[in-house]
Amino acid sequence: MEQGTAIHRRSRSAAPARDFRMRQPGRPVGDLAMHAMAVEFPLVHGHPNRLPFEGVLTLVDVASDKAPSGARGHRVLLTRAAAQAALPSLLGMAVDYKAGWDGHDARQKCGIITSAELDGRRLTVAGFVFSRDFPEIEQRLGLEGAMGMSYELADAHVADMGAQIWTLTRATFTGAAILLRDKAAYRDTSFRLGRAQTSGAPCSTRSHRVDHGITAPASNRSA
Questions:
Q1: 129-131-136-137 Cα dihedral, nearest 10 degrees
Q2: Which residues contact 195 (CB under 8 A, 6 or more apart)?
Q3: At residue 113, does pLDDT exceed 60?
Q4: Among 38, 152, 215, 220, who pairs with 59 as Cys (CB 3.0-4.6 Å)?
């Protein structure tokens, strides 16, 4: 969670994603489902200010390794159902970073999320950083494996405020931060420069669901 984000009982629900369903031959429908959404931008070869990235934003149905900012010292767990319902809210949200790479700075927006995917317990994202505007991003992020991510939320609903671990059953994503992995609430997040999905078609939104046939347990929420 970002610094100062309020978590409370009241929340408005996120719009559900439309999805198409496909099944791998010979595998029963079960736990490990993949849900994905993306905004497709026109392909611009050699764009000087559009550097692709991809990363693991958080885990679902898994408790965080430490308390995120704004959680009053509680570790948190983002349910898979809450993450799936909030997936559309990630698209078009900014990624930011803080000097020192140790937290959030929502006013230091350095990129945009164009796709989000739930694959088992991992919530992965991809998009672009504004490399011409923020040359320090490319310089810093050449350190493979050192960087992670942390989500930013609003309108989060906690099932039981008195519980040791706060279970988030509803939320709206408002952005994400790039930071040192060991500063993130989840140790198993990641961030790296890589290939984001692009298209030569006009801007559009697409979504799909793929069921891989395992039924995954629950846990996790990031900050």
A1: 20
A2: 52, 54, 126
A3: yes
A4: 220
Determine the residue type at 173.
F
The C-alpha torsion from 206 through 192 and 82 to 22, rounded to 10°, is 40
> Averaged over 180-192, what is the pLDDT?
95
Token pair belonging to 151: 């989500």
Q: What is the torsional sign of CA 99, 105, 110, 114?
A: positive
Q: Count Cβ atoms below 10 Å from residue 93 Cβ, excluding itself.
A: 22
For 182-211, b/e burial (b = at least 16 CB within 10 A) is ebbbbebbbbbbeebbbeeeeeeeebbbbb
pLDDT of residue 73: 95
Distance CA 57, CA 117 (A): 10
> Architecture of domain 27-211 in CATH?
Alpha-Beta Barrel (3.20)
Beta strands, E only, the chain: 7-8, 21-23, 33-40, 51-59, 75-78, 94-96, 109-119, 122-129, 147-158, 165-180, 190-193, 204-211
- What is the sign of the dihedral through the CA atoms of 83, 86, 91 and 92? negative
Does the predicted TM-score (pTM) go above 0.90? no
In this predicted structure, the answer to whether residue 4 has a pLDDT above a threshold of 80 is no
